[in-house]
Structure formats: structure tokens, C-alpha cells
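Retro notes
What went well: the complex prediction finally ran end to end.
Inputs used:
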Amino acid sequence: MCVTCGCSDDGEIKITNLETDETEHNHTHTLSDGIITHSHSHDTHIKAPQIHAKIHKTTISLEQDILANNNLLAAQNRGWFKGRNILALNLMSSPGAGKTTLLTQTINDLKHQLSISVIEGDQETANDAKKIKETGSKVIQINTGTGCHLDASMIERGLQKLNPPLNSVVMIENVGNLVCPALFDLGEQAKVVILSVTEGEDKPIKYPHMFRASNIMILTKIDLLPYVDFDVQKCIEYAKQINPQIQIFQVSATTGTGLEKWYAWLIEKLTNLSTIPSSLRNT
Amino acid sequence: MHEFGITQNIVAIVTEHAKGAKVQRVLLEIGKLSAIMPDAIRFCFDICTQGTLLAGATLEILEIPGLGRCRQCGAEIYLDKPFGICNCGSVELDLITGEELKIKEIEIEELCV
């Protein structure tokens, strides 16, 4: 368990570089002055003074945000991406919604226009990372062990191994789970929730935290609509009720339907990153 | 079950601030819209504090109700979910309270020699 980010058993987290097949168990630490180190100090035992004397109670007012360390690391990741003009997206969904299929299709269709590298998050196996590797993309697999989501510290460590090029896209495929990933800022520019039509249309109101936190909703597997009982309009209504600003794409990664709008959004978003706002020009 | 990791984080933060002193009480502030279950934190607290300065400490949790403000008409409404509909029909709500996740205060034993 990494007490710095505080969410999973650090001893079980593995980062696998698919280019070198190296797997590591390393650890990031943040010093009290906010500097992130890569030391391996685990000496956290505090020796209580063996003094027998009069004991007073003292109340210390902390007012400390429990996720402050994660949020600090996420802010550092955000700066890292910004400095390299990288568009980072956090892809989240329940298991089996089709994140990896959407991702491999997106990479294959856009590989001549965009450089896309991937951080894969799963509890176990490097199966998804292998699928991504077949597209020719750079990919790092992060196995969280018992952890149910990725956190900012894992992304920071993954990025050191991934070393994505300047002016590119980093897709972070989170652990399949519609609850926990919504709580952890990774330093991404946008959160993308993927919902397939084989799930219920009421997922947005069942998992409101996820749909409220997301900027984009991608409704996948729409080629299966004739065979399943799924009310698209109802689903969109629910999503807008939770998050009126959410932008929605309806796609099928297997037939290609609707993908062009998603690609246009992606390309525009990356292009806008490199555009200096007009308010800052000529100053 | 993110509460387990979050409780481990609470133990780490409190240990750091206790500076070796035994901790008697921990007061948390958890918003009702934060997606954190106080009962799950209570369950994890006894396990996570074993063998630490917090072992045997009392855990108190202040639950903060959810309050939103309508962007259209400015009305404030109480929420038990992180979304809702204002009387004016708008669903555009800014959350004012309910998302807190904080260690408010801790009580430690101070040795007087």
C-alpha cells in the first residue's frame, strides 16, 4: 500500500513495459516540501517515547483533505502533459464495455495522423497491453493487484516508462469499474466514460459520480441495438440529467459507425492544445 | 472498495501529524455526495489502525449534507444524490457542500515531563 497516494497495495502494483518486457515494482515518495523522489525508504516505524509521566490530551486541528497527495501528484502530471503538449484522456467504463476495442480501432484509423500511446490499467494480466502493442503503439501495462482504480502516482510512474512523444495523445485505460476511478484525478485533460448498449440505459443514474465527473460519454456497440433492449434517448436523458454539459458520441468500433465524430473531437482537442489563446498573442 | 485505501491514507496522515504520540480520537468530515461510505470507513478503521499509533482510537465521522445551487434561478436545494432537479426545472446545479473528505481534527496524548 502506498501511503503517499493511499489507495492500493503498492506491493502488488506492477508496471510492465511492453517494449522491453521488463516488469518493475517501484515506489514514488513525496517529501514534506512536495518534491517527488524515487527513493525506497520504507522505514515508517515511529518509536513512541518510553516515558511514564502525566498525560494530557491535545487536539490538533488538521482540516486536511484526505486525497490531497493524489491531487498534488495529479497537478504535477497535468503540468508534465502541458509542457510536452500532450493530450491525456482517462477512459473509464464497467468491465467489458469495449474500451480496448474502441482504443485499438482508434489507433489503427488515426495512426497516420496522430501519435497515440497507451497506459493500460487492469488488476491482472497484460492481455490488453498485448492487443494495443499489435497496433504498433507504445504501451505500458499497470497491474493494480487488488486495487480497483488507477491513481496519479501510478500514472506518474507509468509515464516515466512510456516516455510519450511531444504533441501526442496519451490514452489512459482505467481499471474496469464505474465507481472508484471517478474519485481519482490522474492529471488528464478530460475524463471519458464508455457505456455499451449491452448494459442498462439507466447506468448514468445508477453510477452518477462517474457520469458527473466525465466530460465525454461514448455509447458503444450501437450495431447491437436491433438485438438488445436499450433506449438510447432515455440513456441520453439520464446522462444529461446528471451532467448537462456531457458531450455524447454514439459509435460502433466494429462497424466504424459514428467513429468519425469521435476522431474529429480528438484531433480538434489536440490541435487546440498547441494553439496559443488569442488573449495571449502579441503580448 | 476504495474506502480501504482511503482509510490507510487517513492512518498515514494522522501518524505523520501525531509525531510519535498515541492518538485517542480522529474526527473526519465526509460529505454525503462524496461516494465514500462512512460505515465502510468505520469497518476498515479497526483493521488499518492495528499496530499503529491510532490503535484503539475513537473514530468520529461528521456527515455533511449535500447542498446544491441552481445556476438558473439561484435557489439552494438539499441533495441526497450528486444530481437533482430544481423547482424551476433546471438540472444545472453547482454543488456547494456534500463532497468533503477531510480529517478535521485529531486528539493525541501529550506527555508532560
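What we learned: The helical segments of chain A are 68-83, 99-110, 127-133, 152-162, 203-206, 208-213, 232-242, 259-273.
What to try next: split runs per interface for comparison.
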